[in-house]
Design a protein that fits this description.
Distance between the termini: 61 Å
Largest sheet: 7 strands, mixed
Strand content: 15-25%
Oligomer: single chain
Mean pLDDT: 89
Length: about 950
RNA sequence: GCCCAGGUGGUGGAACUGGUAGACACGCAGGACUUAAAAUCCUGUGCCCGUCAAAGGCGUGCGGGUUCGAUUCCCGCCCUGGGUACCA
C-alpha cells in the first residue's frame, strides 16, 4: 500500500493513548532523564504552527533518550490562570473556568495530533484546586520564613523569634525591611502580640508593605517590573503609572547573590544568563558619608548629620565637585534655602510633568538646581554644593550621587551646563570634550593616593574611610523585591486573613482556599478587587480574607516538581519522587521568560531547598531557547483608478510598478509558493467575487513580508491544516528542517514537499513497485552498511548537540543512497526505523510492526550501535589545490605516508597545466584531507 | 549609548577542532512517462567569460592582517535581530 499517513497516524496515536506507552515510572533501574517544555497558557486562538517547534524538539530528544536506555519524564500541562480568560469573562460574563476548560480541550486535541510522547497521566493545571493548594502552601512556607545571612539560607520564623527572646535584635544578620527596630530580649517580651507580629512581618520572605507599584488602570491591577515594558503593560500595551499601595511582596532580593552565582553552574544560553545578570545588577562599591552643612538653619533639625552616597568609583572621591540628589528625595525641601526655593520648585514641577517614559527617553536635556546647602568631602575636607538633578533616581542606592565630572559623562555634562568645577584626578585622563572613566594611569590631585594605581587606590580609600567612620565597602543590587499580588479574579487566592490590621495565615488543613464565585469579574464600586464581590466569603466574622490574588508567575514557579508526583494529595510531591527525578535535565522554551519565570523559578527552588523540601540548588540544568516562528505575509496589489480609488483588478507583483496600487494582505492559506490561487481568492471574500487579474507568465505572484504571526495579517498557519494535508510526521520533520532550533525564522511551506517526498521514499524502501511490503533477509552489502552506520553516528551526534535540522538532511541522504542501492535488507531497514522513529514516530511504528515486531515496543527499542569499521576507507580522493585554490582531485591509498604522496605529486606531469609555468616551491600533504601545492 | 546573537546562491540552510564553500531541500530550466494533467522519475543549476569541453576570473556584509591554506582566527568598519538603559 502507498504511504497512508492519515490512517497510520490515527492508529498509532490511539494505540499510544490506550496502552499508556509513555507513562514514566518513578522507580526504575534505568538512569533518569527529565525533559521539560515551558507549559502553555491555553489561549482561545489555539496552537499555531510556531508553538510546537520547541515541543517537537523536546519530543525528539525524549524519544531518543528512551532508545538510549533512559527512564524519561516528559510531561505537559497548562499555565491556566491568566488575564485573557478573565478579560473575556468581563466582556461575556462567561466564567473563566469554562473558557479555560474549552481552550485546554482544543490544545489537547491539537497536541495529540502531532504525536507527542507526553505522559498525560501527570498533566497539571495551575488553576485546579488540587494544584493551587500547593502554590498556596508554598506561599505559607515563605510567610513563615526569614533569611539568615549568617547561615546564608532561609530559616523558620520561629528560629528568629527564639533569637529575639534570648538576645533581642542584636547580632541578627537578616535580609529585612529598612525600618526594623532595635530591642533587647526583655523589650521584645514586653511587646504586645500585635507589635511582635508587625515587627516579624519586616523579616518574612513574603510580606506586606506599602510600596510604590506599577499600577495599570486599564487592567485594574498592579504589575511586576518584568511585566512592564517602556512604561506600558506587556499584555495589552496599556499605560502604567507609579502608585503607592499596600502590597504583598516576595523578598527575592535575599537570594540576589545566590541567583547570580548559580548562573555559573548551569548550561544556559549566554545571552539569557547575561539578561539575568543585568536584571540582578550587582555592583561593588562603597558607601560614603558626606557631612551636611544645611543652608537653611531653621530646617536643620529635620536633616540628618550626613548625606550618604553609594559609588562604584570610590577612588575618584578627590574629583568630587558637587553633590546631586533626586528631585523626589524626601530631604529636598529641608535642604532648600528660601532664596533657592523658587528654582528648586520649578525644577521639581518640571520633572513631575515629564512622564516616566519621557524621562527615560530624554537623556539629552540637562535640568537641575542648587539647593543652597553644602556637604563636606570626608577625605579632602572640601565644601561642595548640593544640587538636585533629573538624572538621579530616588529608587537606586541612596538617591544621592557624588558628582565626579572628570570620570562620569552624566556628571561631566551636568557640570559643564551649570559651570561647576571639573577636576582631573588621573594623569592620563583626557577630559577636554568629555569625561574619561579610565582606570588606567596614576592618581593626581588626590592627596594620599597620588601616584597609586586603581586597585591600590580603591583599597586605600576604603580603608581610610572605615578608619574615620565615614564609609565602608558595599555591594548593591539593582533587583527589587517582587510584588506578589494582583487585583484580579482569575488567580490563586492568597491564604491569608486580616485581624486587627495584621495578616494571618489560614490553617494548613484549610487548604486549598477555593476561589469563590462572584457575580461580575470587575472591581467593586469602591475600587476593591473582584473578590470583594464574593458573598459571605470571610474567614471569620471579624476576619476578612485577602482580596488580591497571586500573580501569573506563582503557579509556574514550581510546576516541574508537581509533574514528578502529580496525583499526590498529601504533599506537593513526595520526597522519594523528588529525590529520584531531582531536577530538569533539559528545559526548552522561549527567551521571553528570561527575567520573569526563569528567575522566579530559581528563587522558589532555592527557597524549597533551604527548607529541606527539595535537593537541588538549581532546577533547570540545561536550557535551550527555541526561536520564534514569524509569519510570512502575502500581498495582492489592487490597482487604483485615476482618483486613487481601488478597482476590482489585481496586478501580479512583478508588474505592479507599472500601476498605482494598494497592497492588501491576502490569506496565506490560498497562496502556494507565492502563487495566488485565483479561484479561491474570488471565494475568499464577497467583494472579490468578480476580481480580475493581470498575470505574469500566466500566474499571479504575490508580494511577501515577514511579520509577527497574527490573525489580522492573515498569515497564521495552523498545524491542523498542515497535518490534514501532509500528516504529523511531515510537520514534525519539516519544522526541524527549517533551520537551527534557536534561530527565529519566518514560516513558509516552500520546502515541505521535499520532506513529504522523503517520507514516501522511505516507505517505498520497504515496498515493491506494486506497493506490497517486501523486505529481504539477505546479508547487507558493504555499501549498505556504510550508509547505515554513517546515519547511526550522524543522528547520535546531531541530537546530542540539538542540531535537529542537520539530521533531517542526513536522513534524506541515507534514504537516497539506500534507494540507489535498491536496498530492502531487513537488518538495515529495521535499524533505520529505530533511528528515524524519534523524528517520525507514526510511520516508524507502522513499519516496525510490518517488520514483525511487537506493537508499541519501538519506543523502548535500543538505538543501533555504531561500528566504525564500516566507515573505514583505504583510499581517499585528495583535493589538489595550488596556493589554496582547489584545481582537481587525485586518488591515493591512505596507507601511503606523506613523503610517498609528495613524491607522486612532484612526479605527476598532468598537474603542470595548473601551475601557470611556475616552479613548485613546496607541497603540503595533510593525510586524509588535502594536498596544497605552493608555487 | 552599552551587552548579546547574526550577515553564505533565486529561497531555507550545510560546512562540528583553520583543510574540496554552497551538502540536503525548495524553486527554476530541460527531458522521460501520459491523449492530457497531476503524481513519479532522470539531467542541469553560485556568478562572469568560453559554441560544447578544457582552462580562466570573481565569490561567505565591507576593508585590512596572520597562514601553504580563512565562512572559520585577529584588528577596524557597515548592516539586521534581540536585550537593556540617566543604576552613580
Amino acid at each position: 500500500m502507498d504511504y497512508q499517513f492519515k490512517d497510520i497516524e490515527k492508529k498509532w496515536q490511539a494505540f499510544w493513548a490506550a496502552n499508556q506507552t509513555f507513562k514514566a515510572d518513578n522507580n526504575s533501574a534505568k538512569p533518569k532523564y527529565y525533559v521539560l517544555d515551558m507549559f502553555p497558557y491555553p489561549s482561545g486562538a489555539g496552537l499555531h504552527v510556531g508553538h510546537p517547534l520547541g515541543y517537537i524538539a523536546s519530543d525528539i530528544f525524549s524519544r531518543y533518550k528512551r532508545l538510549k536506555g533512559f527512564n524519561v519524564l516528559h510531561p505537559m500541562g497548562y499555565d491556566s490562570f491568566g488575564l485573557p480568560a478573565e478579560q473575556y469573562a468581563i466582556q461575556t460574563g462567561q466564567h473563566p473556568a469554562i473558557t479555560t476548560e474549552d481552550n485546554i480541550a482544543t490544545y489537547r486535541r491539537q497536541l495529540d495530533q502531532i504525536g507527542f510522547s507526553f505522559d498525560w497521566s501527570r498533566e497539571v493545571r495551575t488553576s485546579s484546586p488540587g494544584y493551587y493548594k500547593w502554590t498556596q502552601w508554598i506561599f505559607m512556607q515563605l510567610f513563615n520564613s526569614w533569611y539568615n545571612k549568617d547561615a546564608d539560607k532561609a530559616e523558620s520564623i520561629d528560629e528568629l523569634v527564639k533569637k529575639f527572646e534570648t538576645n533581642g535584635s542584636a547580632n541578627i544578620s537578616a535580609v529585612s525591611d529598612d525600618d526594623t527596630l532595635n530591642f533587647t530580649a526583655d523589650e521584645w517580651k514586653a511587646m504586645s502580640h500585635d507589635e511582635q507580629q508587625a515587627e516579624l512581618l519586616k523579616y518574612r520572605l513574603t510580606y506586606l508593605r506599602e510600596s510604590t507599584v506599577n499600577w495599570c488602570a486599564a487592567l485594574g491591577t498592579v504589575l511586576a517590573n518584568d511585566e512592564v515594558k517602556d512604561g506600558f503593560s506587556e499584555r495589552g500595551g496599556y499605560p502604567v503609572e507609579q502608585k503607592k499601595m499596600m502590597q504583598w511582596s516576595m523578598r527575592i532580593t535575599a537570594y540576589a547573590e545566590r541567583l547570580l552565582q548559580g548562573l555559573d553552574n548551569i548550561d544556559w544560553p549566554d545571552p539569557l544568563k547575561e539578561m539575568q545578570r543585568n536584571w540582578i545588577g550587582k555592583s561593588i562599591g562603597a558607601m560614603v558619608k558626606f557631612k551636611l552643612e544645611p543652608g537653611n538653619k531653621d530646617l536643620a533639625a529635620e536633616l540628618p548629620a550626613y548625606l550618604e552616597v553609594f559609588t562604584t568609583r570610590v577612588d575618584t572621591i578627590f574629583g568630587v565637585s558637587y553633590m546631586v540628589i533626586a528631585p523626589e528625595h524626601e530631604l529636598v525641601q529641608a535642604l532648600t534655602t528660601p532664596e533657592h526655593k523658587a528654582a528648586i520648585d520649578a525644577c521639581i514641577a518640571q520633572t513631575k510633568k515629564k512622564s516616566e517614559l519621557d524621562r527615560m527617553a530624554d537623556t539629552k536635556t540637562i535640568s537641575g538646581a542648587f539647593t543652597g546647602s553644602h556637604v563636606i568631602n570626608p577625605l579632602s575636607g572640601e565644601k561642595v554644593q548640593v544640587w538636585i538633578a533629573d538624572y538621579v533616581l530616588a529608587g537606586y542606592g541612596t538617591g544621592c550621587v557624588m558628582g565626579v565630572p572628570s570620570g562620569d559623562q552624566r556628571d561631566y555634562l551636568f557640570a559643564k551646563h551649570f559651570d561647576l568645577p571639573i577636576v582631573p584626578i588621573i594623569d592620563i585622563q583626557n577630559i577636554e570634550t568629555e569625561a574619561d572613566p579610565t582606570k588606567e594611569g596614576k592618581y593626581i590631585n588626590s592627596d594620599f593616593i597620588n601616584g597609586m594605581e586603581y586597585k591600590e587606590a580603591t583599597t586605600a580609600v576604603i580603608a581610610k574611610l572605615e578608619s574615620i567612620g565615614m564609609g565602608s565597602g558595599k555591594t548593591n543590587y539593582r533587583m527589587r523585591d517582587a510584588i506578589f499580588g494582583r487585583q484580579r479574579y482569575w488567580g490563586e487566592p492568597v491564604p491569608v486573613y486580616f485581624k486587627d490590621g495584621l495578616p494571618h495565615l489560614i490553617k494548613e488543613e484549610e487548604l486549598p482556599l477555593i476561589l469563590p464565585e462572584v457575580d461580575k469579574y470587575l472591581p467593586t464600586e469602591t475600587g476593591e478587587p473582584p473578590l470583594a464581590r464574593a458573598e459571605g466569603w470571610k474567614y471569620a466574622e471579624d476576619a476578612a480574607y485577602e482580596l488580591s490574588t497571586m500573580p501569573g508567575w506563582a503557579g509556574s514557579s514550581w510546576y516541574w516538581y508537581r509533574y514528578m508526583d502529580a496525583q499526590n494529595g498529601s504533599e506537593f510531591a513526595s520526597r522519594e519522587a523528588i529525590d529520584y527525578w531531582k531536577d530538569v535535565d533539559l528545559y526548552i522554551g522561549g527567551s521571553e521568560h528570561a527575567t520573569g519565570h526563569l528567575l522566579y523559578s530559581r528563587f522558589w527552588n532555592k527557597f524549597l531547598k533551604d527548607i529541606g523540601k527539595v535537593g537541588e540548588e538549581e532546577p533547570f540544568k540545561k536550557l535551550i531557547n527555541q526561536g520564534m516562528i514569524q509569519g510570512r505575509s502575502n500581498f495582492v496589489y489592487r490597482v487604483n483608478d485615476a482618483d486613487g480609488r481601488g478597482t476590482n483588478t489585481f496586478v501580479s507583483n512583478g508588474l505592479k510598478s507599472q500601476y498605482n496600487t494598494s497592497a492588501l494582505h491576502v490569506d496565506v492559506n490560498i497562496v502556494e509558493n507565492d502563487i495566488l490561487d485565483t479561484v479561491k481568492f474570488k471565494k475568499w471574500r464577497d467583494d472579490f467575487a468578480n476580481a480580475e487579474f493581470i498575470l505574469e507568465n500566466g500566474k499571479y505572484v504575490c508580494g511577501v513580508e515577514v511579520e509577527k504571526m497574527s490573525k489580522s495579517k492573515f498569515n497564521v498557519v495552523n498545524p491542523d491544516d498542515i497535518i490534514e494535508r501532509y500528516g504529523a510526521d511531515t510537520l514534525r520533520m519539516y519544522e526541524m528542517f527549517l533551520g537551527p532550533l534557536e534561530q527565529s525564522k519566518p514560516w513558509n511551506t516552500n520546502g515541505i514537499e521535499g520532506v513529504f517526498k522523503f517520507l514516501r521514499k522511505f516507505w517505498r524502501l520497504f515496498h515493491n513497485d506494486a506497493w506490497e511490503f517486501n523486505v529481504s533477509d539477505a546479508e547487507p552489502s558493504k555499501a549498505e552498511l556504510k550508509s547505515l552506520h554513517k546515519i547511526i553516528l550522524k543522528v547520535q551526534e546531531d541530537v546530542e548537540r540539538f542540531s535537529f535540522n542537520t539530521s533531517v538532511s542526513s536522513f534524506m541522504i541515507a534514504v537516497n543512497e539506500l534507494t540507489d542501492l535498491k536496498c530492502n535488507k531487513r537488518s538495515v531497514l529495521q535499524d533505520m526505523v529505530v533511528i528515524l522513529s524519534p523524528y517520525a514516530p507514526h510511520i516508524c511504528e507502522e513499519l516496525w510492526t510490518l517488520l514483525g515486531n511487537e506493537a508499541g515496543s519501538l519506543s523502548y527499542a535500543a538505538y543501533p550501535k555504531f561500528n566504525p569499521e564500516y566507515l573505514v576507507e583505504n583510499e581517499f580522493s585528495y583535493p589538489i589545490s595550488v596556493n589554496g585554490k582547489t584545481k582537481t582531485n587525485i586518488n591515493f591509498a591512505l596507507s601511503l605516508d606523506v613523503k610517498e604522496v609528495e613524491a607522486q605529486i612532484l612526479a605527476n606531469t598532468d598537474l603542470q597545466k595548473y601551475l601557470d609555468g611556475k616552479a613548485i616551491k613546496k607541497v603540503i600533504v595533510v593525510k586524509g584531507r588535502i594536498i596544497n601545492i605552493v608555487v
